[in-house]
């Protein structure tokens, strides 16, 4: 594909994906009390057994002080657990609490339910096949 065609495709695809992402975020009533960064922290904690506050701050590219405030908010909501390290009591392991796991599952369920309904109602069978075939190339873009 020529550079010009690739640029045109990128210009058409980017706003559609951004709008879909925003719409999915807005459609999760279970997730309304959290900022985008707090949601991202929960997902990171889901991917790891635990992380330190400093590691989370580095991954999210925010200051340790800001991370501390976010973690305090998540702790008040009972979405995370804090446990002292067995080898170094100065270190606090941050992990996803059972309530946090339930919330992530609920949010994903709400989003999947909406997206499934939207696909079924507005896309033809042919369009649904196109969407299915697009998952591979879109995954490559995300992993780039």
TrEMBL record:
Q: Which InterPro entries match?
A: HTH-type_Bedaq_tolerance (IPR052526), HTH_MarR-typ (IPR000835), WH-like_DNA-bd_sf (IPR036388), WH_DNA-bd_sf (IPR036390)
Q: Where is the HTH marR-type domain?
A: 6-140
Care to name a GO molecular-function term for this sequence? DNA-binding transcription factor activity
Q: Which domain of life is it from?
A: Bacteria
Name the residues that span the membrane.
Answer: none
Coiled coil region boundaries: none
* Entries under PANTHER family matching the protein: CONSERVED PROTEIN, HTH-TYPE TRANSCRIPTIONAL REGULATOR RV0880
The protein's name is: MarR family transcriptional regulator
Specify the species. Pedobacter jejuensis
């Amino acid at each position: 594909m020529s550079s010009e065609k690739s640029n045109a495709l990128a210009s058409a695809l980017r706003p559609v994906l951004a709008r879909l992402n925003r719409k999915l975020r807005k459609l999760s009533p279970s997730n309304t009390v959290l900022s985008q960064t707090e949601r991202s922290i929960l997902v990171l904690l889901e991917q790891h057994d635990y992380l330190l506050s400093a590691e989370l701050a580095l991954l999210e590219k925010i200051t340790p002080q800001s991370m501390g405030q976010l973690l305090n908010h998540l702790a008040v909501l009972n979405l995370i657990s804090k446990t002292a390290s067995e080898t170094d009591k100065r270190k606090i392991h941050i992990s996803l609490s059972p309530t946090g796991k339930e919330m992530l599952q609920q949010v994903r369920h709400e989003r999947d339910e909406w997206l499934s309904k939207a696909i079924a109602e507005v896309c033809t069978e042919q369009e649904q096949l196109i969407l299915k075939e697009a998952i591979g190339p879109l995954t490559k873009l995300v992993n780039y």
